[in-house]
């Protein structure tokens, strides 16, 4: 039985494809979005499409960025001779504590999930 119009149903279906979003959460988000001011909805939609279009892997450390080199690799205040390897880009934030800032640069193994130490030598 269809409770909602086709566009509301489509929005709920698309939102429910996101990780951690069940059908009830998708409905709640859909109605929240529908009740948001149009400029906020436009901003949300454009941030999603622009991130998808422009975000790629940093050419040096393989974290996700929208620039050729990420802010960590571009920073002149960091020690680029000491590298901390993390499993994926989301792990970067966990190690970016103020006391450790500038102490090292980071390298994400996200595009190379089965990367070993010998592979890292090849990448450098
Ligand atoms: Zn980088």
Commentary on this structure:
- The protein is about 45% helix and about 10% strand.
- By secondary structure, it is mainly alpha-helical.
- It has two domains: about 50 residues, RecR Domain 1 (Helicase, Ruva Protein, domain 3); about 70 residues, no CATH class.
- The strands form two sheets. It has a two-stranded antiparallel sheet.
- Helix 1 crosses helix 2.
- The radius of gyration is 20 Å and the shape is elongated.
- The N and C termini lie far apart (about 55 Å).
- The protein binds zinc ion.
* Number of helical stretches of at least 4 residues: 6
Cα distance spanning the termini:
57 Å
Q: Name the ligand types.
A: zinc ion
Mean pLDDT: 82
Secondary-structure blueprint:
Blueprint lengths: L5 H10 L7 H13 L2 H17 L1 E2 L6 E2 L5 H4 L8 E4 L5 H4 L9 E4 L8 H7 L1
Parallel strand pairs: 3-4
Antiparallel strand pairs: 1-2
């Amino acid at each position: 039985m269809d409770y909602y119009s086709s566009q509301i149903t489509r929005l709920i279906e698309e939102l429910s494809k996101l990780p951690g979003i069940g059908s009830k959460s998708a409905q709640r988000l859909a109605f929240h979005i529908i009740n948001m001011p149009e400029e906020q909805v436009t901003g949300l939609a454009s941030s999603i499409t622009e991130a998808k279009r422009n975000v790629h892997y940093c050419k040096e450390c393989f974290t996700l960025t929208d620039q050729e080199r990420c802010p960590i690799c571009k920073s002149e205040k960091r020690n680029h001779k000491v590298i901390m390897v993390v499993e994926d880009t989301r792990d970067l934030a966990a190690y970016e504590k103020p006391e450790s800032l500038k102490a090292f640069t980071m390298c994400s193994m996200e595009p190379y999930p089965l990367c070993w130490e010998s592979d890292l030598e090849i990448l450098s």
